[in-house]
């Protein structure tokens, strides 16, 4: 029988199916953003490390300029896949696909850039924060400073009160929803502008425990029955242009346990807490929404919430 840590590792994405990685290859926003950022960050002669390489595509982007790329992957199926892909592409010989745990691996030499894309909305489920923090400690103990450049360099996370339609052909189902960022979704209404609740700078120490409480002014009357979570990944800071290369995750809307009726101008109080790398239900269980004028949130009948 597997122990708890083994179950958690499988559940939280270390062994996601090969076809999921194939879908990531077809995500043009993700691919273009990372290719541009890696092209900017990696210089000729650089040594590069990727933690959690998947198909190896990000390591391959780095190999266009780098002298050597170490691509670390824990899933044996993905190790085979990445090695196959490297053999099919020019410069693939500069990428060494290493079968190892990203929580434990150290390259045999100092590196200039570390690529790590273990990113879910809100830094949930996958272990981006913990992997990078653990790597910093091991790297400084072995090689001393300075630390390499991390890619992504930072993440900005925001939250937004929403009214979301949960009627599916008459079947009421308050479920987690993921929405593309450039598409209008009927039945999904912004109740107030988003507010930033956390900024992670991967060059600095980051606490995986995240907690936030804040207020919004409702822009319209309706029902707050969900919180939308937004994650903007700053892949690279282009200092000479004063700009950034970004990648925006799909929006994630989580239903709140008790929908709250609001009027335009109401102050809506929101709070939640979770641990980076934790499950979606662990965040949902802490989400609280209320109207400031009435500290006891006004419950909404399910039929009203669906209207």
In short:
The protein has helices spanning 4-11, 18-25, 28-41, 57-63, 76-88, 128-143, 280-284, 302-306; strands spanning 47-51, 68-73, 95-99, 113-116, 149-151, 154-164, 167-168, 171-172, 177-179, 188-190, 195-201, 209-217, 222-238, 243-248, 251-262, 267-275, 288-291.
CATH class (first level) name of the largest domain: Mainly Beta
Under CATH, the topology of the largest domain is which?
Hnrnp arginine n-methyltransferase1
Counted up, domains total 2
Helical segment count: 8
Low-confidence stretches: 1-13, 295-307
Structural class by helix and strand composition: alpha+beta
Order of helices and strands: HHHEHEHEEHEEEEEEEEEEEEHEH
Helix proportion: 10-25%
Organism: Massilia polaris
Keywords: Methyltransferase, Transferase
InterPro entries: Arg_MeTrfase (IPR025799), Methyltransf_25 (IPR041698), SAM-dependent_MTases_sf (IPR029063)
Protein name: Methyltransferase domain-containing protein
Notes on the structure:
By secondary structure, this protein is an alpha+beta fold. It has two domains: 4-117, Rossmann fold (3-Layer(aba) Sandwich), CATH 3.40.50; 154-306, Hnrnp arginine n-methyltransferase1 (Distorted Sandwich), CATH 2.70.160. It is 25% helix and 35% strand. It has eight helices and 17 strands. The strands form four sheets. Strands 6, 9, 10, 11, 13, 14 and 15 form a seven-stranded antiparallel sheet that branches. Keywords: Methyltransferase, Transferase. Residues 48-132 form the Methyltransferase domain.
